[in-house]
Amino acid sequence: MAYVEVRGLRKAYVTPRGRTPVLGGIDLSLDEGEFVAVVGYSGSGKTTLVSLLGGLIAPDGGDIRLDGVPVTGPGPERGIVFQHYSLLPWLSVRDNVALAVDAVNPGLSAAERRRITDEFIALVNLTPAAWKRPRELSGGMRQRVAVARGLAMRPKLLLMDEPFSALDALTRATLQDELLRIWGERRSTVILITNDVDEAILLADRIYPMTPGPDAVLGPAIEVGLPRPRQRRHMSLEPAYQKARRALVDFLRSSVSEREAATTEGGPRQMRPGSGTPGSPMEV
Ligand SMILES: Nc1ncnc2c1ncn2[C@@H]1O[C@H](COP(=O)(O)OP(=O)(O)O)[C@@H](O)[C@H]1O
Ligand SMILES: [Mg+2]
Fold first, then answer.
1. Which residue from 28, 166, 188, 191 lies 20 to 30 Å from 146 (Cα-Cα)?
2. What DSSP designation does 210 have?
3. Which residue from 130, 281, 63, 265 is spatially nearest to 273, judged by alpha carbons?
4. Ligand nearest to the CA of residue 49, numbered in listed order
């Protein structure tokens, strides 16, 4: 059995306005130390998948195992980095990260706690800002604290839900490069959720495209054949990059046109406006 094994995961939300079937049977597996990305359109069910993997909500069917153990609720062996900074506003960077250190290492001496906390702060290049409170930080710095906190839990599985999508393009590229470096040093097991095709190819070993839903499923995994360590520069010229990108974009576009054909009751297949045109945007 794989290190992370997800089988037939289904989830619908039931509200007074009706039932929204979101996930229609998600299958996913990761070996220890793998970096896998899930790419899908907004609204397809990516955050729902993260919430299920994190044990924050319960599935209607299917099964999640981490290192052989069924996931039935939240736990410190799964770290989550959310899209929006979820820091405690009254605590400094150091104290926000120290909370995560405490959660998994109860009873440390003060010196040891400080040493481990500072190690994770340095890893995300925040040493000069360690004493600041979240409101004194830029968006990129806040998201670095969130990454440091996720790593400080030393989780068996790190879940990242669009961690950089609220950031401007330059900051986002910097944080992607930092994550690439950190993962190269630590080889944690990571599931990155993103709507950015190029981010997924830069970072992941393997990419699962997600259909738009309702009843979203994951398409066949796309292996990213790019060697590591990876460099952003010139990567887009590599044949392996272009192959992965084409497979991913083709799957995502055809899943949208299939859904549109279904919703127009067998009418002509329609592409989304702008899809299929050269130079289309890199986000889905
Ligand atoms: N708590 C909820 N109650 C009802 N519907 C929800 C809830 N959370 C998400 N949804 C709906 O489920 C669908 C998938 O949402 P989400 O998982 O957030 O997608 P994504 O992260 O891919 O944008 C959307 O249609 C959304 O409106
Ligand atoms: Mg989301």
1. 28
2. B
3. 281
4. 1
Q: Calculate the dihedral angle through the C-alpha atoms of 23, 27, 33, 36, rounding to the nearest 10 degrees.
A: -60
The torsion defined by the Cα of 72, 73, 76 and 78, in degrees rounded to 10, comes to 70
Residue 152 and residue 81 in contact, taking contact as beta carbons nearer than 8 Å: no
Pocket of ligand 1 (CB under 6 A): 13, 15, 20, 22, 40, 42-48
Query: What letter does residue 16 receive in the DSSP assignment?
Result: T
- Asked if 34 contacts 189 with a C-beta cutoff of 8 angstroms, the reply is yes
Helix (H) or strand (E) holding 24: strand 18-30
* Minimal-distance CA residue to ligand 1 atom 2: 13
Evaluate if pTM is beyond 0.70: yes
Q: Mutate which of 11, 13, 44 to test ligand 1's pocket (most atoms within 8 Å of Cβ)?
A: 13
Token pair listed for 76 = 């410190």
H-helix segments, 41-154: 46-53, 93-104, 110-123, 139-152
Report which bound ligand comes closest to the CA of 212: 1
Residue bearing tokens 């009873």: 107
Query: What pLDDT digit, counting tens, does each position of 203-255 carry?
Result: 999 999 999 989 999 999 999 999 999 988 888 899 999 999 999 999 999 99
